[in-house]
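Reader question, answered in our methods column.
A reader sent in the components of a multi-part assembly and asked whether the whole thing could be modeled at once rather than chain by chain. We filled in our standard form and ran it. Here is what they sent:
COMPLEX SIZE: two components
ENTRIES:
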Amino acid sequence: MDTKASEDLAHIKEMMERSSRFISLSGLSGIGAGIVGLAAGGIASSIIANSGGKIDNYFYAEAAIPKLFGLGIIALLLALFFGCFFTIRKSKKLGLPIWTSNTKKILIQLAIPLFTGGIFVLALLNHQLYGLIAGTTLIFYGLSLINVEKQTYSDIKYLGLLEIILGCISLFWIGKGLIFWTIGFGVLHIVYGIILYRKYR
Amino acid sequence: MGIISGLNKEFESRVRLGMMSVLMVNDWMDFTEMKNLLQVTDGNLSSHATALEKNGYIEVKKEFVGKRPRTSYKITDSGKKAFQEHLAFLEKMMRQ
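And here is the structure of the entire assembly that came back:
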């Protein structure tokens, strides 16, 4: 009787989790996005150096801005590609459907802060406030991660918090944004990806 | 109704237990998604759904999306209450 009760409870818990949390998120997605982040940081620093700026003080290297903008878009697309690729692979392995009402909910909740952040960055670009861009991207990205905490592995909120903290610090260190950006999108993604991979493989 | 001393006979089946668990943490859930989650056949799911509906534990909505019919389920207040009682009883049994 007791084993039936414990089996039933385990079944209830599993069904609640499966139906309400997106557990196909793969650690490899984080690692992939992190490598893209590191590479983008490296390329960005060489773009800045070539246009006469310094890696730790690119505040005045305005000529580099269009190239950096293009690089940012490419990095975003590549990171999204790796993110989706490994996560779809994991969901196939787990035999879970990928396109569920929960997935749609997650995408909307991610998109709201990200889209707002995107507009904010465009406004900063428009006003030539380049020094605030790196911190702003980190902050809005962190907010979007915290926003999906209830729909996927809840420890994603710690990654979100760290991104926000880094972003906030970066706002007061204008000219060193690229360093914070590379730590936030490169190093933190790789670290979180490894933790996720080992914890829920 | 099968609420005798806490354990609810209506929830003895794994499929019903699963359906109720899913509906406790979700709003409207459609037939196909429920079927994939529980990994059961069409017939199996609909017969259990009918039983739960008859007991007033779930609400069934049938509608058309374009030309395709779609069935969705939602837990009722009495369903929630019954499931919570069942859950509390299971937990009590575990502690003994």
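What stands out: Chain A has one domain: 25-200. Residues 29 and 83 of chain A are 4 Å apart (CA to CA).
Send us your own complexes using the same form.
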